[in-house]
Amino acid sequence: MEKIRWGIIGSANIAKGSVIPGIQQSETGEVVAIASRGLEKAKETAEQLNIPKAYGSYEELLQDPEIEAVYIPLPNHLHKEWTIRAAEAGKHVLCEKPLAINANEAKEMVAACEKAGVVFAEAFMYRYHPRYKLINELISSGEIGDIRGIHGTFTFNNANDSGNVRYKKEWGGGSLYDVGVYPISAARMILNEEPKAATVHAFFSEKHDDVDMMASGILEFDKGVALTFDCGMWAAFRNELEILGTNGRIEVPSAFITHQNEQDHIIVHTNDGKRELEVPYLNQYALQADAMGRTIRNSEKLPFPSQDAVLNMKVIDACLTSARERRRVEL
User: Which residue in 106, 134, 196, 258 has a CA-CA distance of 20 to 30 Å to 283?
Assistant: First the structure.
């Protein structure tokens, strides 16, 4: 299979530290160009990561006929503009999460990509790791019984980095956008349904442009099942998921970010005791690139269609409304 030729629009840390190396380690892709707002920065990043071409503007990269697909790690408020411009230039698009600032923007982006006939995916790398297939098999086997609830956490402390784009309200800053999207998307994926209502309480920090630095919430699903979650950018690091059943529970100590150690194993608790299921270390970003590469080259069905991102943004919209207005929001 001829490798997909990727261009990177922006030099954010997530691109340099995770996604670019992931594409380079993938079976289906190679990174051939990177663009930044200044040529020097683009050249510096290209040299660091062995990328052949560097551009001093995003427009120049989109004009490069060699590039087939682009990855967009720009601040959230720029996702819509550059996804649509990339689609109009005929490039397939992998856009960093959250897809947009709201569900309406996400709908416009999906429509533009469909009109242009390009593949469009949201960069939720964790979903491509086979541990979630294993989790679904465990649930389907009935080992833990019927699901009664899911609890997810994703927190970290970066509050001292006052100039970070995560702390700019108009740019789509805040913990719900940045890390709350993970447990929310995981619950939707595991339950294979959409929540009916959201209730969220948040800490909005005046020191950080009034974005939510911590949020705790509940999403109501069918049959009395709920996701309880918390997310934060001014708290100790956690990255966990628990699926509670009538006869047992599944514990995922490293639910979204994987590490090359035993903490990535899945732990199953039942009346028969506790057992650990070994999960191999795999580069989630490479798996994500390969899924998209097979869709582009072989017309394989994208595991997570772009419409899923619209639905996830709809939930985030409800969570933010609930937190701001301090009320339960029906979806």
Answer: 106
Bridge-partner residues for 154, per DSSP?
231, 239
Q: Taking the model in full, what pTM does it have?
A: 0.96
Token reading at 188 = 């939707």
106 Cβ contact partners less than 8 Å away, ≥ 6 residues apart: 99, 100, 309, 310, 313
Residue 329 half-sphere exposure toward CB, CA atoms < 13 A? 19
Contact 152, 186 (CB under 8 A): yes
Question: Is 293 inside any structural domain?
Answer: no
273-303: per-residue pLDDT in tens?
Answer: 999 998 888 999 999 999 999 999 999 999 9
Q: Are 118 and 136 contained in the same domain? A: no
CB 230 within 8 A of CB 209: no
Distance CA 120, CA 113 (A): 6
Assess if residue 303 is contained within a domain.
no
In this structure, the answer to whether residues 122 and 153 fall within a common structural domain is no
Give the separation between CA 35 and CA 56, rounded to whole angstroms: 6
161 & 92 share domain: no
Task: Please state, in angstroms and rounded to a whole number, the distance separating the CA atoms of residues 198 and 221.
Answer: 10
Q: Using an 8 Å Cβ cutoff, are 221 and 193 in contact?
A: yes
Q: How many CA atoms lie within 13 A of 145 on its CB side?
A: 11
Is 42 a member of any domain? yes
User: How many distinct structural domains can be found in the chain?
Assistant: 2
